[in-house]
Structures are given as C-alpha cells and as structure tokens.
Write the structure tokens for this entry.
Amino acid sequence: MPRVPNSELTATNAIFPVNGLPRRVLNFAGCNYLGLAHEPRVHAAAIRGMGRYGLTTTASRETTGNTDAHTGLERELAEFLGMDSAILTTEGYTANMALCEALGQSHKVALIDEKSHRSVGHAAEASGMRVMRYRHRDAAHAAELARTAAREVGADGVVILTDGVFTADGVIAPLRELVKALPGAGSVLVVDDCHGFCVLGQSGRGTCDHLGVRDPRIVITTTLGKGLGCYGGVIAGAKEVIDRVQQGARIYRGTTPCPPPLIEAAREAVRVLIERPQLSKKLLEQAAYLRKGLTRCGVKLNDAPTPILAFVLDSETQMDEVSAGLLQRGVFAPVIEYPGGPAQRYFRITLTAEHTREHLDQLIEGFATLLDAKTLVAA
Ligand SMILES: Cc1ncc(COP(=O)(O)O)c(C=O)c1O
C-alpha cells in the first residue's frame, strides 16, 4: 500500500504518485461511505459555520468555548440515534477514551472483543478497569466472562465493549446476544459504531438499528469523520451516563472542542442522511454487487453486507501483483497491514455510495483479468 500523500481526493478518485508521477486513480480506500466529505451542502454549512464562529472556539466548552452548533448537534444526534442524550468529543478515538474514563469511576471490569478497534482497548486500559478479552464475536464467551466478573465485582460493575462493524473486515457484532450477556441493570454495552453509523440501518442509524437491538444499557460511540464526512466524535446513551462523561471525563473537559465549522458541517450531513435514506441503501446494494462480482472471480469473502471487503488471495506475492496490476489500470485497491483482518496483510476494499456500477465493473474486470478468472462480468 503506498504510504504516500494524496495530492487530491474526491469521493471516488485520488491523486498520488505512481512510478514517481502523480496519477489519478479510482479510489477503493478510505471511509467516505456516502461521499459526504465532498457533498456541496455540507461544504456550504462549514463555510457558514466559519463565518459565524471563526475557525475554532479557542477554549474548552466548560469555560467559554461552548456554541449553539455543538449543543444543536448533540440534540440532533441523540434524536437521530434514538438515544436519551449525546455528547460530542474531539474525535471518535476520544469518544471511547472519555466514555471509559467516566465508566471506570463506577465499573470495575471491561470485557472486550479481541478484535475491537485499538481505541476501545486503549480506552478501557487507561480507565483503570480490569480488561479481559473475549473471543471475536463470541457472545457466549462474553457471557461466561461476565458471569465470573459479576461474582467478583457485582453485576453492575461490568462493561462489555465491541465494535458494531469491525474496522478491519466489516463483519457485524452479535449485539442482541451481547445485550443478553450483560449481567446487571447497571452494566453497560459500549458499541463503537464508527463503521456502522451512516452505513447500516434506516438512513444510516447504525448497527443497533440494523439489528433491531434497543436497550437502555447500550451506549454508542462513533466518529463524525468517516460516513458523515466531517470530523469529531460522539457518545450517545442514557442521560445519566452522558452526564457522567460531561462531569467526570478529563479528556472531554480539558480540551478545545471540535471546530464549529465542522460541527455545522456535521449537522448538515445528518440532515442529508435523513432526507436521503437511499444513500445508505445504494451503498449496501453496491457492496452486494461488488461481492457477487469478486466471488465470480474466485475471491473468497466473508458474508457481511457492509462496504468493507477484506480478503486474501493465495499468497502475499499474488496480492501485491494484483494490487500493482490494478494500479497500472488506474484502480487503487490496497493491500494493507492492519490488526484484526483475515491475515497479517490483506486486501481491504471500501466503497462509497458515489461509486457507479461502471467503477465497480472496472474493479471486477481488473480482478478477473489479473486472476485469470474465466468469467464475464454480468450486467
Ligand atoms: C472502530 C473505530 N473506532 C474509533 C476510530 C477513531 O475515530 P476517529 O478517527 O474519529 O478518531 C476509528 C477510526 O479511525 C475506528 O475505525
């Protein structure tokens, strides 16, 4: 994967050096799932926000840096996600840090899916909770550890943490079963939904919505920097939990908030989500189309419906050759090295709703040719 800087990004294209020269390629990387990072309405809202507030508040929210933009987005996101309350953080990473910092003041044990995002593990470890890892997507194992922990620290002392959609390979967590694994009324299920938000569920409401799982003990954390195309993070859940973050998380209290122009941009992006439910629907249809096409080329994929396609070929050499061959054809489909995937190095292809069928066919045809698959791309 070229760790070279892009000199331009659109919703579907990137320009970066290939063989030493800048080249425009069709981009199948990044997490601009709905193309909202390039949505003119969202850009216009950012510019209006800059005119109204300047670039940044220059102070923390608890002193003089609070704005209508921040409180407005919190209200709007809580409503969108069907939660009591929400609080913004500077990033998705710090959403996990702030939530765990607050939960660590009352809860004693954190049970984490072994393939959760590094921010989840980091947050739990930094919180002082005792951290135990359950087998990937194994809710029965989580339940077993939760029962043991509850005997030691009480049923309300346990937090379970998982990604909603796993970053590396796009598979979905068994949230219904994880809710059942919670041992007490005061225990908490944290769902980091950075890759489910804007992607799954009605209008992109996320993994809980997609699975039809609701429980007052669920707290959602997510980024505003992927599907929403902006920047920042949010924690959404019961008012009592959100109040504790606001009052007790130093990482929230002691920082300048995400800049208001980006917050105004995020507010507009949420409006776009609500007005255009077809965006996330199209994204998932495109993902299904691509999965079918690559499967016909002989690629073995997991069965997740998400726009993250992670897979290996027969060898690393073959993967590098195919990725390089695609690049020569003007298609960027990266082989990455990132924890939690199907191997140490693997293809990780992501889509946006802005990709057209022609774009997908170009990718599928590239794989078909380079893998020498004797298949035709069906319309
Ligand atoms: C699952 C998950 N959680 C948290 C984060 C961190 O979000 P942010 O980039 O907004 O800090 C990411 C990715 O960056 C992620 O993939």
